[in-house]
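Consider the tokenized backbone below.
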């Protein structure tokens, strides 16, 4: 009996050791997988009182970050207490609360969470609205963003094999006026070249420093409004054409690696791509807009830089980065994780 007991004990120890080795191997394998790639998710245009079916889909991607591209809530008021109430309600959405517990969240605002539809520098409640936004983003009271004008910020996501930098622009606080367009189906037309600004002097200086000093493998510039699509009649960077030239020159001259632009606002999703003189890779503007609602009456609009088709149903954006291969795979994703469109770019 003693010999049988010893044999059984030896057998159990061997099984236990094999089981432990298997678990460790799986853990190491999972760690290696997570270190090989960065996964960034983002989206915009979210009504807190409408169902957002994507929070579980986003969490299922196991992303390194989720980026708000603006219109987090639809407040549209100069009552900053009401704006804060809308943000507080968004925080109570169960699946979003779960995402917030498990995933790093950053981003910027757009007009509806700013408080004024198509609003800019003229909005009288912008200082209070800024504090409500920062509260929602859990920014500490002693953070410098509490004192600066505008919600622009940057964060670095680090892994052993690389760095991703997220640069959140504020295209509202300093943006000067737009010119009404009288043509049917168009809201605005471009300002005269050199008139007005989108970012303002201080933010432009900050952005220049962020790009020129960046050692990241990829740099994501988050703009609530579209940068490359310049033919439609709504809000866009092209309404301030000198600002577009300034941004393109800065991206080209900064030496920053792998610059991509992420945008929202339009209630559609699309890829835009443009070759810039002096830049070794094409500049991509990935628009992901319509987390809870979309441009359902969309019937087409010109965009000379568009790659693929416009997605006019709710969706979110996802980017997979391969640091070693220096590639980014951009995906427009619908409910249940269905990939609606995909674009791969080498850098």
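A designed sequence for it:
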């Amino acid at each position: 009996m003693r010999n049988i007991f010893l044999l059984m004990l030896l057998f159990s120890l061997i099984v236990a050791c094999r089981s432990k080795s298997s678990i460790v191997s799986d853990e190491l394998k999972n760690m290696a997988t997570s270190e090989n790639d960065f996964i960034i998710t983002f989206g915009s245009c979210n009504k807190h009182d409408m169902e957002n079916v994507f929070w579980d889909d986003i969490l299922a991607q196991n992303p390194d970050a989720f980026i708000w591209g603006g219109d987090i809530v639809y407040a549209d008021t100069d009552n900053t207490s009401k704006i804060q109430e809308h943000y507080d309600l968004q925080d109570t959405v169960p699946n979003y609360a779960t995402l917030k517990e498990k995933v790093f969240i950053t981003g910027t605002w757009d007009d509806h969470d700013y408080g004024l539809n198509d609003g800019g520098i003229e909005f009288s409640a912008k200082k209070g609205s800024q504090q409500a936004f920062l509260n929602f983003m859990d920014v500490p009271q002693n953070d410098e963003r509490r004192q600066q004008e505008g919600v622009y910020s940057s964060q670095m996501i680090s892994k052993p094999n690389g760095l991703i930098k997220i640069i959140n622009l504020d295209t509202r606080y300093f943006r000067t006026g737009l010119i009404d367009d009288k043509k049917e189906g168009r809201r605005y037309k471009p300002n005269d070249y050199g008139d007005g600004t989108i970012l303002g002097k201080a933010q432009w200086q900050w952005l220049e420093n962020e790009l020129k000093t960046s050692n990241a493998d990829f740099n994501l510039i988050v703009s609530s409004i579209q940068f490359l699509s310049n033919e439609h009649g709504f809000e866009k960077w092209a309404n301030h054409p000198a600002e577009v030239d300034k941004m393109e020159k800065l991206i080209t001259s900064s030496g920053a690696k792998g610059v991509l632009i992420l945008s929202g606002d339009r209630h559609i999703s699309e890829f835009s791509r443009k070759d810039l003189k002096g830049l070794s890779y094409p500049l991509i503007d990935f628009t992901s807009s319509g987390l809870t609602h979309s441009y359902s009456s969309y019937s087409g609009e010109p965009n000379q830089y568009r790659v693929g088709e416009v997605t006019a149903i709710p969706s979110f954006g996802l980017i997979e980065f391969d640091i070693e291969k220096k590639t980014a795979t951009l995906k427009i994703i619908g409910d249940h994780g269905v990939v609606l469109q995909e674009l791969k770019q080498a850098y």
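The mean pLDDT is 91.
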